[in-house]
Amino acid sequence: QVRLVESGGGLVQPGGSRRLSCTAYGFTLGGYGVSWYRQAPGKERELVANIGGNRCRTNYEDSVKGRFTISRDNARTTVYLQMDSLESEAAGVYYCPAAQMGRPLYWGQGTQVTVSS
Fold first, then answer.
1. Distance in angstroms (rounded) separating the CA atoms of residues 40 and 89
2. Euclidean distance between CA atoms 68 and 63, whole angstroms
3. Sign of CA dihedral 74, 98, 106, 49
């Protein structure tokens, strides 16, 4: 069965770190651009970071530059989002759609990140 699964969310204290995983089942992520989006309560979904399918170029939303890192594993089945120095604004549900030609083809169910002391 082809699906994407986000995991790694949970409760983290302000200033702490968390690593999210986006794992493909039934296919590999090679050739797919993968993005991490965050949706906070009452807000629109916003792009946090993305990584290209072939050349693996990365892009980050300005507020997370230097604190978040998106990467792939060598098997091309998982994309990670390492989040450091977390602030309360990082809280929300994180999604990682996989896209080809700029069009998202697969979505997961999301993983919840809560930032609180």
1. 8
2. 9
3. positive
